[in-house]
Amino acid sequence: MQPTPRRTIRMDVRELAIGTAYLSQTVVGILGNFSLLYHYTILYFTGCRLRPTDLILTHLFVANSMVLLSRGIPQTMVSFGWKGFFNDFACKLFAYTSKVGRGMSLASTCLLSFFQAITISPRNSRWAELKEKTPKYVGPSIFMCWMTQMLVNIIFPMFVISKQTNTNITSRKDLGYCSSVRHDKTRDSLYAALLFVPDVVCLGLMIWASASMVFILYRHKKQVQHIHRNNVSSSSSPESRATKTILLLVSTFVYFYTFSAIFHCYMALADKPNWWLENASPLIHACFPTVSPFVLMSHVSSVCRLCFAWIR
């Protein structure tokens, strides 16, 4: 049965709308992440001494860019009708890059909150000894996160194939630009658990570190209230401003991660998901990589001003 012209026009408009949304989100997100990467690169080559959290932020922006490029480009091309580009290699490459980038985005946000909680901890706390050693642990921690994500997600491309593949596979699931191979429930459950455990660990550490930072800021505010000098406040402290920015970033991540997980679970369980929900899932998946650089803009600009003032 051939589709009616009215239905065809409606589908074309719908595809054009979602393709424009993918393209806009990708362009805005890439501009935001690349602009902050550019700022940090300039500061590094001009001799500005960056903090350990700044190194974590640069890797967060790289991970965000990986997610945006590996998700936004394929979805935009498919929405605009360019479906013949994706062979098996392209499908596996985009899928693997997206998974690694998403995992590193989570791990970087977790590291950022964890190291910031140690940085602002009081001198008499049990974390005081780690304050001096924190800069030495940042680099190895980031390297370990990259290696973990690359090794854990190396299995994922095995489940992804091109729609053009003529291999006799009984069960496939449409991913938009490629297809996912369905196996028995036991294998799929074990693989899901393998990917889910690192996420749960990172989210747990992130929530614990955020709660610790809130408690430290609250206690500091109480102590400051006993000081009668008007020019002393918790908001005037650079550490307090940076901590509040990181707390906002973590809250943004948890918010979008929760919605993305809900959509992902629905897509995994539904045999024929609704078209709008199916296309909204990648948009929500890329919301945090798009929004996070703009959340950090004010903090990064203040750091830049302080560094350039120090150089002069």
Summarize it.
This protein has helices at residues 5-45, 52-79, 88-119, 128-152, 185-224, 238-269, 275-285, 287-295, 297-311; strands spanning 160-161, 172-174, 179-181.
Task: Explain what the structure shows.
- The relative contact order is 0.13.
- A hairpin with a 4-residue loop joins strand 2 and strand 3 (179-181).
- The chain has nine helices and three strands.
- The protein is an all-alpha fold and 312 residues long.
- Helix content is 75%, strand content 3%.
- It starts with a helix and ends with a helix.
- The longest helix has 41 residues, at 5-45.
Could you report the average pLDDT, rounded to the nearest whole number?
Answer: 77
| Percent of residues in β-strands | under 5%
- Count of helical segments? 9
Determine Rg (CA atoms, Å). Answer: 22 Å
Number of strands: 3
Order of helices and strands: HHHHEEEHHHHH
The major sheet is characterized as: 3 strands, antiparallel
The percent range for helix content is over 70%
| Distance between the first and last residues' Cα | 73 Å
Topology:
Elements: H1 5-45, H2 52-79, H3 88-119, H4 128-152, E1 160-161, E2 172-174, E3 179-181, H5 185-224, H6 238-269, H7 275-285, H8 287-295, H9 297-311
Antiparallel strand pairs: 1-3, 2-3
Helix pairs in contact: 1-2, 1-7, 1-8, 1-9, 2-3, 2-4, 2-8, 3-4, 3-5, 3-6, 5-6, 6-7, 6-8
